Amino acid sequence: MPLTGVEPARMNRKKGDKGFESPRPYKLTHQVVCINNINFQRKSVVGFVELTIFPTVANLNRIKLNSKQCRIYRVRINDLEAAFIYNDPTLEVCHSESKQRNLNYFSNAYAAAVSAVDPDAGNGELCIKVPSELWKHVDELKVLKIHINFSLDQPKGGLHFVVPSVEGSMAERGAHVFSCGYQNSTRFWFPCVDSYSELCTWKLEFTVDAAMVAVSNGDLVETVYTHDMRKKTFHYMLTIPTAASNISLAIGPFEILVDPYMHEVTHFCLPQLLPLLKHTTSYLHEVFEFYEEILTCRYPYSCFKTVFIDEAYVEVAAYASMSIFRSDEWVLKGISGYIYGLWMKKTFGVNEYRHWIKESGFPSTLFNKASTYTVLGILQYVSV
């Protein structure tokens, strides 16, 4: 009888090794994220999530999830109203006026607050009480569906709104929003189990204005317009189990470019940057081929998306099946400025050239080695 995929792992497991044991009394299998209202002027979003979980213990009466900044309006479990408590101890690290006012005391208090909501310790900011009508259901370890309505106003993390102060509609102004932050920051923009150890499949839905484009993880299943054609909803499906920390979103009036060499790859950029986008991403297919060759395995997702935005905190943020880059306007300005400097040096001489560098406020050492640094900078960003 041939061995199954599980049996070899059991054979290699040492005696007494139970493997990974989840700190949570349930297993998350699927999550729906639906954001049906995005207001760029108020910098707010409204939506709901639905988590499908299977209890792993018979006496499960409380479910802890992660959520920061979000205002929770309503929680239902299997269509029954559920009571909940929201408590984020990191908002007030030092509860009382302690005589100890030093960095060491604050660091210890903050570490304790973070541990109190750590999902890998079975904790969370949102504690949901399972209705008594479902206790028998839980004892039989049957599925539970948790529906949570929430909103988010002027977030300080998780989502970043970019709204230029110019005239015109939001699309004409190039307004956009994107997810950001380091690991375990998905809880900042929707309730979830914000842990790399909790994987599940995802259904992602985002309703935006007709002139906007919503880019998220997985395959774009369909785009549905409303009856008045003023709004549309993007439906994404991510069938490979993925942690919440790898879920991302970017919404804006993006121009779209399908990679001419790899049709599974799609690029997005802000208006009027399409020529630069074509040049910047022209080598991406070679990067894919190199990685697949060196790792001797195929790219795990059926598609890949690159999104170039403004005001990003990092040069690149990688997520499941997509990456978010910052739009590098300095590349164009840097190249043109460097060429202008070469022309000035050739036409007016070295003294005028150095005077221009000094008046511009650039470090002279940078321009003394301009040829090296400029070429390296161009190669770095063109080959992304």
Write a brief caption for the model.
The protein has helices spanning 6-12, 103-115, 135-139, 274-280, 284-295, 329-348, 350-360, 364-368, 370-382, and strands at residues 26-39, 44-55, 62-65, 71-77, 80-81, 84-86, 126-129, 144-153, 159-162, 176-179, 199-209, 213-216, 219-225, 231-243, 249-252, 255-258, 265-269, 304-309, 316-319, 322-326.
Characterise the protein shown here.
- There is one protein chain.
- The protein has helices spanning 6-12, 103-115, 135-139, 274-280, 284-295, 329-348, 350-360, 364-368, 370-382; strands at residues 26-39, 44-55, 62-65, 71-77, 80-81, 84-86, 126-129, 144-153, 159-162, 176-179, 199-209, 213-216, 219-225, 231-243, 249-252, 255-258, 265-269, 304-309, 316-319, 322-326.
- The chain has 384 residues and is an alpha+beta fold.
- Among the domains are: 252-329, Zincin-like; 330-382.
- The strands form four sheets. Strands 5-4-8-2-1-11-14-13 form an eight-stranded mixed β-sheet, with no helix packed on it.
- It starts with 5 loop residues before the first helix and ends with a helix.
- The relative contact order is 0.11.
- Mean pLDDT is 83; it is low at 1-13 and 364-384.
- InterPro entries: Aminopeptidase_N-like_N_sf (IPR042097), Peptidase_M4/M1_CTD_sf (IPR027268), TAF2 (IPR037813).
